[in-house]
Design goal:
This protein has 292 residues and is of the alpha/beta class. It has helices at 62-77, 92-97, 113-122, 124-127, 143-149, 174-182, 201-212, 249-258, 269-275, 280-286; strands spanning 6-9, 19-22, 25-31, 36-42, 46-51, 54-58, 82-87, 105-110, 136-140, 154-160, 184-193, 217-224, 232-239. The strands form 3 sheets. It has a 7-stranded mixed sheet, sandwiched between helices. Bound molecules: S-adenosylmethionine.
Length: 292
C-alpha cells in the first residue's frame, strides 16, 4: 500500500496558511503550455481540478460558483442574447449559460486548449451539453487579445479566470476591463471572479477601483464556496445601468419562470437579491475610497 499523498492549496502560502486534500487517486497531471494542471479524486469533494496549486473546481461544490456567476448577471440583465465567457476552461459556466433560452450565442475564450481537452474526458457533465451545441463557440486565445480586437458586442461578459497569477494576471488589469467595456452593448453587465476578501482584500479593492473608473455602477456580490477557502467569495459586478443591481424580487422570479425554471441548487431569486447585501467589512472594502 503506497504512501498517502496530500495535495496542498498553495494560494495563501504568503499568509502562512494551507488547506490540504488527501488524494484517493490522481487521474491526470501535466505541465501545459501555460500552467501546472492536476486532477485527482477526493473521498468527499469528488473530482478536484487544480491549476498552479489553486483549486479551480470540485464536483461537490461547483454548483455554487457556476450558478452565481451565470444566473445573477443573465437574469438581472433580463434579455441577454450575446454572452462572452473569458476563461471557463472546464465549461461549468458555459453549461449554466446555455440553460437560458434567451441566449442566442455564447462565446468562450480560453487560453489553454489542454484544459478544455481534458475536461471533455473528465468533466463530461459540463462539456457534454456544451461542446457541439450550435449556440456555442470556443475560441482558444488570450482573453486580453480577444476583447481588445473583437468587433462583436455582448450583453453579458463573465470572467471565469484563474487568480491574478500566471496567465490570469492580465485579466485583473485596467487595460483588460477597458477592453471588456469596449465590446459591451449599452446596459450590458460584466462579472468577474474577485477572490476571497478576508484573505485577498487587495484583489477586491483594486478590482472595484479599476471598474469604477469605467462604469457608472461597480460593486460585488457574495457566495459561500467551501473549497474557495476563506469564507465569502466575491464576484465583481460592473454596468452602466445601475438599476440592474437593484432588480426586484418579483421581476427576477418572473424572468426565471420565463427562462423555464430550470433546476438550480444554490441560486434562487431571494439568494440573488441577498447576495448584494454585503457584510460591513466587505462593504468597507468596496466603499468609495477615492472620495467619489
Ligand atoms: N472558477 C475557477 C476559479 O475561480 O479559480 C476558474 C476556473 S477556469 C478553470 C479558469 C480558466 O481561466 C482556466 O482554464 C485558465 O486556463 C483560463 N485562463 C487563465 N488566464 C487566461 C487568459 N489570459 N485568457 C483566457 N483564459 C485564461
Amino acid at each position: 500500500m503506497g504512501e498517502t499523498r496530500w495535495i496542498p492549496e498553495m494560494l495563501f502560502d504568503d499568509l502562512g496558511f494551507r488547506m490540504s486534500y488527501r488524494v484517493e487517486r490522481v487521474l491526470y497531471e501535466m505541465q501545459t503550455e501555460h500552467q501546472h494542471l492536476i486532477l485527482f479524486e477526493h473521498k468527499f469533494f469528488g473530482k478536484i481540478l487544480m491549476l498552479d496549486g489553486a483549486t479551480q473546481v470540485t464536483t461537490k461544490d461547483e454548483f455554487v460558483y457556476h450558478e452565481m456567476m451565470t444566473h445573477v448577471p443573465i437574469l438581472a440583465h433580463g434579455a441577454a442574447a450575446e454572452v462572452l465567457i473569458v476563461g471557463g476552461g472546464d465549461c461549468g459556466i458555459a453549461e449554466e449559460v446555455l440553460k437560458h433560452r434567451s441566449v442566442k450565442r455564447l462565446t468562450q475564450v480560453e487560453i489553454d486548449a489542454s484544459v478544455v481537452e481534458f475536461s471533455k474526458e473528465h468533466f463530461p457533465e459540463f462539456t457534454g451539453p456544451v461542446l457541439g451545441n450550435k449556440r456555442f463557440d470556443l475560441v482558444i486565445e488570450d482573453g486580453m487579445n480577444y476583447v481588445a480586437k473583437t468587433n462583436r458586442r455582448f450583453d453579458v461578459i463573465i470572467v471565469d479566470s484563474t487568480d491574478p497569477q500566471g496567465p490570469g494576471k492580465i485579466l485583473f488589469t485596467q487595460q483588460f476591463y477597458a477592453a471588456c467595456k469596449r465590446c459591451m452593448k449599452r446596459g450590458a453587465v460584466l462579472v468577474t471572479q474577485n477572490g476571497v476578501p478576508l484573505l485577498q482584500p487587495g484583489e477586491l479593492t483594486e478590482g472595484i477601483r479599476k471598474l469604477r473608473k469605467l462604469f457608472a455602477d461597480a460593486s460585488c456580490y457574495v457566495a459561500a464556496i467551501p473549497t474557495y477557502i476563506g469564507g465569502h467569495m466575491t464576484m465583481g459586478w460592473a454596468s452602466d445601468n445601475a438599476r440592474l443591481r437593484e432588480t426586484r424580487l418579483a421581476a427576477l422570479a418572473e424572468r426565471y419562470r420565463k427562462a423555464g425554471s430550470f433546476p438550480t441548487r444554490y441560486w434562487t431569486p431571494q439568494v440573488h437579491r441577498a447576495a448584494f447585501a454585503l457584510p460591513r467589512f466587505i462593504a468597507d472594502l468596496v466603499a468609495h475610497r477615492d472620495g467619489r
